[in-house]
Amino acid sequence: MNYSGIVVVCRPEDVPAVADRLADLPGVEVHYREQVQGKIVVVQEAETVDAEMDGIKRIKRLPGVILADMMYHYFEEDPGILDGLAARREPDKGPAVSARG
C-alpha cells in the first residue's frame, strides 16, 4: 500500500469547494485546511505506485487547484508477502563450527 502526503494550493476563497472535491475522490482524506493561505493537506492511499501517480494527476486536474505537490510518501509492504519470502528461505543450519580441536 502506498500513502502520500499531498499539499494542495488554491485561492483562499476556493478552499471549501476544493476540499469537498478532494474528499469525494476515492482513497483521499482531507486532514487540514488553511483558509487564509489557501492550503489543504490530504493523505492519499493507493494500491500501487502507478495508482498513486494517477491519483496526484487527478488531484492536479480538479477545478480550483493551482498546485499539488507530494510532500511525503510511505510504502507499506503486505505482511503476507514477507511471510511468503521467509518461508522460502533455507532453514538455519546452526552456528558455524570451528575446525580447531
List keywords for this structure.
single chain, 101 residues, alpha+beta, Alpha-Beta Plaits, 3 helices
Q: CATH first level: which class?
A: Alpha Beta
- By CATH, the topology is Alpha-Beta Plaits
What strand line-up does the widest sheet have? 2-3-1-4
| Rg for CA atoms | 22 Å
Structural category is alpha+beta
Low-confidence stretches: none
H and E order: EHEEHEH
Number of domains: 1
What's the quick description here?
This protein is of the alpha+beta class. The chain contains 3 helices and 4 strands.
Description:
The chain is an alpha+beta fold and 101 residues long. It has a single domain, classed as Alpha-Beta Plaits (2-Layer Sandwich), CATH 3.30.70.920. It is built from three helices and four strands; from the N terminus they run βαββαβα. The longest helix is centred in the middle third of the chain and has 12 residues.
SSE blueprint and pairings:
Blueprint: E1 2-10, H1 15-24, E2 28-34, E3 39-46, H2 49-60, E4 65-75, H3 79-88
